[in-house]
Design a protein that fits this description.
The complex is a heterodimer of chains A (153) and B (367).
Chain A: H1 3-22, H2 25-32, E1 40-56, E2 63-78, E3 83-89, H3 93-106, H4 112-139, E4 142-143
Antiparallel strand pairs in A: 1-2, 2-3
Helix pairs in contact in A: 1-3, 1-4, 2-3, 2-4
Chain B: H1 9-24, H2 34-40, H3 42-52, E1 54-55, H4 57-66, H5 71-82, E2 87-90, E3 100-105, E4 116-117, H6 155-161, H7 191-199, H8 203-214, E5 223-238, E6 243-262, E7 270-279, H9 283-295, H10 312-318, H11 321-329, H12 336-357
Antiparallel strand pairs in B: 3-5, 5-6, 6-7
Chain lengths: 153, 367
Amino acid sequence: MAAGDRDSNQARRKAAMAVLAQADTREIAKCLQSIAVPAHEDLREPENGLIMLRGRIGGDGAPFNLGEATVSRAAVRLSTGEVGLGYALGRDREKARLIALCDALVQSERLCDSVETLIIAPLRADILAKRRHKAAQTAATKVDFYTMVRGEG
Amino acid sequence: MYVAVKGGERAIENAHRLLAHERRGERSVPELALEQIAQQLGLAVDRVMTEGSLYDRELAALAIKQARGDMIEAIFLMRAFRATLPRFGSSEPVDTGAMQIHRRISSTFKDIPGGQILGPTFDYTHRLLDAQLADGFVPEEPATAEAAAPATPRVTDFLGRDGLIERSPGAEPDAAVGDLTREPLSFPAERDLRLQNLARGDEGFLLALGYSSQRGYGRNHPFAGEIRFGEVEVEFFAEDAGFAVPLGSIALTECQMVNQFKGSATEAPCFTRGYGLAFGQSERKAMSMALVDRALRARELGEEITAAVQDEEFVMSHSDNVQATGFVEHLKLPHYVDFQSELGLLRKLRKEFADANDVEPLQEAAE
């Protein structure tokens, strides 16, 4: 595979994962029903673990360890050979497995377009709508402080 | 010294049964659901995650329920749970500049790019108890407004562009990031370790220390340059994927304290900084952390160390409430053997005193 292909392949997988990691497990499962998923098996049983979350000193400086978070991960292999990886914050192992399955499907030339249209796009739209709603509520609390100008007399 | 004792198994078992009963309370009153705690006692959950040093809202809600609302007990439970899971690795450092903002204020500039956004805050409330909340209160739907493009640079970024504030210390290439969960503390400690220690440190302890610095014990003239709360995305470089995998978002509060300036013969004077970062909406914690972080930089900035808040060994050795409560509360455990030997020694000394002064020793009721 040429470097450019690998980069665009990675970018597509990463973009899909970014949506899936934010999505609700039941929603992912529901979207998956609209796709003829090929036979697949767990390459790695879904498991729970931790990652150490890092911040940066001053927000933009050297990294430091902030504290840990629970995380789940899984790996799934399609009968056609594609291996998908699933990672998500939290202890929902089924979510990690579903993300791994979607990641494998994203890499399938035959299915990647329908995964984008039938799974990723609707989940993304849902996440963005929720985010916009929250942003609108937040925007209503924006203030303009002003310093009083001393009047005459 | 604590010496192991045996016995009391039945009493202990019954005490735990009684605890479970008391925790449940009157059984005609509905039981608390974890979702109720996570949603309606959200700031308690944030604190337990921050000081338990484990981001997991559901687990923190369970810990609070199990601990009957005792925060330090809940934090202890989180720490203990953490020890049961393997660590997959470390996240990429989160980018708080790209935060999806829920609240963002500056007390140093009124016209900051992106604006002052109050968000859900207790500020400007009158702190009067609200009887309406006692039963069945349904709040109004939040107001909405058109959200502008969410460019919200950090206040310290634009102060930094003019050179008015010191830069954050850059990362040394290949330098390991200190981790106090893996290596025991040793002193002097670098700033990465100090921040990790403060991030999991007791809010009350850091609040008191920060307050002491404001009152003059290691004064450093702070301004709240910026406080922001919102969501940031987390990425983790997964070896098997070969790239940084998105994991979802976490809520964080960040505080940039802007402090008294400092210059030298070779450097123009500029403001110095203190930094605070905490899980969830933990504003008091992030502010206290930033005050203490700045005070602990006394050595680096060539300031005279005169106060407790500037003494890293003192601060870092006593900030952890799980360690502190362990040592304080172990005094409850049977110390009978230890105490008997002290008692024996005291009797001997009293007898010697009586013999030397030719007085009749007092009869002791306990003997």
